[in-house]
Amino acid sequence: MAFRSRELFKKLIRKVGQDILALSVEESLKKCLPDEKCMMGRAKRGLYAGLHIQFGNQVSEDGGNKSYPLL
């Protein structure tokens, strides 16, 4: 479960109460929530697909960010 959906799940559990919900209802609620790491729909497109890039902006090991001379 992604961070945002996990927070939404916690918020629903707090409002309703964990004692009231059955285990099967909790599991079905988890299945309904999205399981994506990127939050914005626009971020799914693009170079990094909305994922957080750590350790620099390296795309590929062979240096994919090279600029080639125009002839």
TrEMBL record:
GO cellular component terms attached to this protein's record: mitochondrial large ribosomal subunit
Entries under InterPro entries matching the protein: Ribosomal_bL28
UniProt protein name: Uncharacterized protein
Gene Ontology molecular functions: structural constituent of ribosome
Organism the protein comes from: Nymphaea colorata (pocket water lily)
Domain of life: Eukaryota
